[in-house]
Design goal:
elongated; 5-stranded parallel beta sheet; alpha/beta; Rossmann fold; about 20% strand; single chain; binds calcium ion; 4-stranded antiparallel beta sheet; Arc Repressor Mutant, subunit A; about 40% helix
């Protein structure tokens, strides 16, 4: 069984693709090169890679952003790095709103790409641990993922609404990772059909009251300016 982390490179230009395949293989990754979003869909049906390096300019009427959005809906765990061309005039926020973890503009230095890949994979591996247990510490309380309640230090349990639980669960599964507001809305917002940005902020206020030591100065569910929110697990 191949223990190397699997990286998929989606790039329609053969020379670029081959360059990335050779380079990343030499760095010790298992690498698959694909030409299009359609190819990626077929591969993901069989296995979810650790990371997808996704060119924005793809043929076939589906750009990299659309593919990223689809992939993020399939998996909260897979790492996504967008590769943008100068002509894409894309800023960081647009990239992150699709659920991507990072982006790198062309042309790039392979060593910088490698540094970003390692950084994103490191963050993601930190996010695997809490989901292995049914209980995740959040602020002053513990989220019980099986019973769907918040537990106090003295063992008292507080029930959660479906939308509160869904939101806390997404945070619990993605610690130390900035989560875009739109992505959160798309991922968990379907139950109540809320369409306003404000709806997410109001929900965050509600769950902060339930988990933060001091809701006015949140430390567990932090605001990431221009992006959204990030769950930071307790340090001690
Ligand atoms: Ca391209």
């Amino acid at each position: 069984m191949d223990k190397r982390q699997h990286i998929v490179v989606v790039e329609d230009e053969p020379a670029q693709r081959q360059l990335l395949l050779d380079y990343l293989t030499r760095q010790g990754f298992r690498v698959t090169g694909l030409e299009s979003g359609a190819d990626l869909r077929r591969l993901v049906d069989r296995e979810m890679p650790a990371l997808v390096l996704l060119d924005v300019g793809l043929p076939g009427g589906e750009d990299g952003f659309a593919v990223a959005r689809w992939l993020r809906e399939k998996s909260g765990k897979v790492c996504i790095i967008m590769v943008t061309a100068a002509a894409d005039t894309v800023d960081r926020v647009v990239g992150l709103e699709t659920g991507a973890d990072d982006y790198i503009p062309k042309p790039f230095d392979p060593r910088e790409l490698l540094a970003r890949i390692k950084s994103v994979l490191r963050r993601a591996s930190g996010s695997v641990a809490p989901t292995t247990g049914p209980r995740v510490r959040m602020g002053r309380r513990v989220l019980d993922l099986e019973k769907r309640v918040l537990v106090e230090a003295d063992g008292a349990e507080e029930a959660l609404s479906a939308s509160e639980f869904d939101l806390l669960k997404v945070f619990a599964e993605n610690p130390n990772r900035p989560l875009a507001r739109d992505w959160l809305l798309e991922t968990i917002g379907h139950r109540e059909m809320e369409v306003f940005d404000r709806a997410m902020d109001l929900r965050i206020t509600r769950i902060r009251r339930k988990v933060e030591k001091d809701p006015a100065h949140p430390e567990a569910i932090r605001t990431v300016r221009g992006v959204g929110y990030m769950f930071v697990p307790p340090k001690d």
